[in-house]
Amino acid sequence: MEKQTRREFLKTIGLAAASSPALSILPGCVSAGQTGRAEPKRPNIVVIISDDMGYADIGCHGCKDIATPNIDSVARNGIRFTNGYVSCPVCSPTRAGLITGRYQQRFGHEFNTGPPPGGLREHVGLPLTEVTIADVLKSAGYVTCAVGKWHLGLSKHFHPFRRGFDEFFGFLHGNHSFIESGLGTFNPILRGTEPVDEKEYLTDAFSREAVSFVERHHDERFFLYLAYNAVHTPMQAPQRYKDSFKHITDRKRRIYAGMLTSMDEGIGKLLGKLRELGLEEDTLLFFINDNGGPTSANGSLNDPLRATKGTMYEGGVRVPFMVQWPGRLKAGLVYDHPVISLDILPTAAAAGGAEVPGDRNLDGVNLLPYLTGKKKKSPHEILFWRSGQNHALRKGNWKLVKMGSETGLFDLASDIGESKDLKAEKPDVLKDMQDTYERWNSQMVDPVWTIQRRQRKTTKKKKKN
Ligand SMILES: [Ca+2]
Fold it and tell me: What is the tally of structural domains in the chain?
């Protein structure tokens, strides 16, 4: 049914079903397997993304007041990244980087896509010049599905069906109520392109749909992109947990605990389904959070990292990140070299024997040879971040942060909390970092759109009048 809907949808926007931009560039592609030879048996691929979770809020990062046994099990069954990053400290640009394997500043997706009216402008969304992980895997024969938060454009030409996905269940904007379907608003829950009156708690509904996709496609090679909006605001937990977290005195964190538990249980159901169907060994599964916790908004905790979502400090960009593939990767390993969300696409492509675009720079790398020990060096010597005037880079263990008028230089090897600014003591390092940043920055393009702000107050005023 979803495939039929997708075809119909493409027709309505003037595209034949087979005219995906990814397919048109394939003749110029190179095989990711050429650099990281894939095993003969291609795995299913699952990418699970949480939203606004704190760095400290999972058991394997030391969380004591909320249990996350299912997320932790991914680390236990696979590899946990202790220096795992995303390419932006807010939602939409991170997704743009993850889904393309490229720094999103290469194509101007530097800021969040906003609500209407700005968010409906035809240029506000993942530029159509970009090739997504779904395009790449679909071209290699994978059946593809996105469940959850999209946040890569509200207009129909940015719809997941237009970006390589065969199926979609979720919403297009950056946040959503967990208990109301949003029917009649600009941001309803959609099955494909059709609004649905979803009755289930939203996180549970996303888990249900993810499990259903796996059940329906267990005998095909599949790619599932499961982007929960938990534990982003609004703070709404399932009723069934209302008495479960009395040990947490802070009201906001108590609700957060229920929201997080629902997501962890949903991930458990998905992992259980993969096991039940005998697919666990042959499924490459990532779990990553999209940006640091906004601690005052949702009660999350980023300890021991400095600051929060929206900042260039570690609390904004270093996130829970782990991978399992029992048939190929050893279990229970910890990987300490820096990795980044941009690596997911090239890694998945290599594992799946898929071709990555050969006509553009990918900033992510195939992690498989690093995770199997064939390559010993760090996959990334330098990582960059830029959001407007704020920026940062990490080179080795040095981190340069520019936030507003403040510049700080930190040695992450001895100071993960970025508490001791060394720029006065290390002017040579500071200069080298600044020069390195400027060289990278000169290769990036200007943002396609600027920061979009909700016009809530104006709207309310108009209604009163
Ligand atoms: Ca987020």
Answer: 2
Q: What is the pLDDT of residues 350-394, one digit of tens each?
A: 999 999 999 999 999 999 999 999 999 999 999 999 999 999 999
**For residue 432, is it within any domain?**
yes
Across the chain, what does the average pLDDT equal? 91
* Integer Cα distance of 293 and 51 in angstroms: 8
Tell me, yes or no, whether 465 lies in a domain. no
Q: Could you tell me if 204 and 346 lie in one domain?
A: yes
**Segment 311-333, tens digit of pLDDT:** 999 999 999 999 999 999 999 99
In this structure, what token pair is assigned to residue 55? 């760095």
Domain assignment of residue 361, yes or no: yes
pLDDT (tens digit, 9 = 90+) per residue, 387-444? Answer: 999 999 999 999 999 999 999 999 999 999 999 999 999 999 999 999 999 999 999 9
Q: Any idea what the CATH number is for the domain that residue 211 is in?
A: 3.40.720.10
126, two tokens? 């993942």
**CATH code of 406's domain:** 3.30.1120.10
CA atoms within 13 A on the CB side of 220: 16
Cα 134 to chain centroid distance, Å, stands at 14
Average pLDDT over residues 218-243: 97
Q: What is the pLDDT of residue 96?
A: 98
Q: Give yes or no: residues 268 and 172 share one domain.
A: yes
pTM score:
0.91
Backbone angles phi, psi at 393, to 5 degrees: -150, 155
Q: How far is the CA of 234 from the centre of ligand 1 (A)?
A: 12
Q: How far is the CA of 409 from the centre of ligand 1 (A)?
A: 26
Q: CA separation (Å) from 4 to 23, 111, 232, 403?
A: 19, 33, 32, 48
How far, in Å, is the centroid of ligand 1 from the Cα of 253? 17
**Active-site residue numbers?**
91, 151
Domain check: are 354 and 426 in the same one? no
| Residue 422, domain extent | 389-441
**What pLDDT does residue 180 have?**
97
> How many Å lie between the centroid of ligand 1 and the Cα of residue 388?
18
Note whether 330 and 401 are same-domain residues: no
